[in-house]
Write a structure and sequence with these properties.
This protein is mainly alpha-helical and 182 residues long. The protein has 5 helices and no strands.
Amino acid sequence: MKLTTKQILKVLYVLAWIIFIGLCVEAGGILFNTLYTIVINPIGAQNFWKGIDLSGLYNYDKGYYMAETMLMSIVSLIQAILFYFIVKVLHDKKLDMLQPFSAEVKQFISKASYLSMAIGLVSFLGIKHTERLLTHGVVMPDVQQVGFGGADVWIFMGIVLLVIVKVFERGIEIQAENDLTI
């Protein structure tokens, strides 16, 4: 059984929607739990989003608690935005296999690159913030649990995508030259 490019793109479209919805739920869950804990019930820090225990941080300082949860929210939100762009490019059918080098695809890859680097940088800030809190004796969950893991991978992916953008720029030039000669 051979899958066509069109079928693969449909599967990727469905997967991108599932991931996008999951990331939106995660970002909303983190924001809701932060506000719930700060405004309504401080015990919510014990069983934060996905069972994370941030009660040690909450008891240490509410400002640091807000900073940590806002960094978690920002990472989730940027990831959701990245997958929104993936869903959008697949929905709008901007991927033309007959003319693969287009300005729309180049723009999408460029946005994905910057968003990936932003995820990596905010995750890196989250890791450093968490490490600083650990040096003050605050009991903190692992950086993987709070969503800061893989900062270096996100930055690396962003750089790789920037290189691909440059390849697409050259491909667009060559494609335009070929169109003019025909």
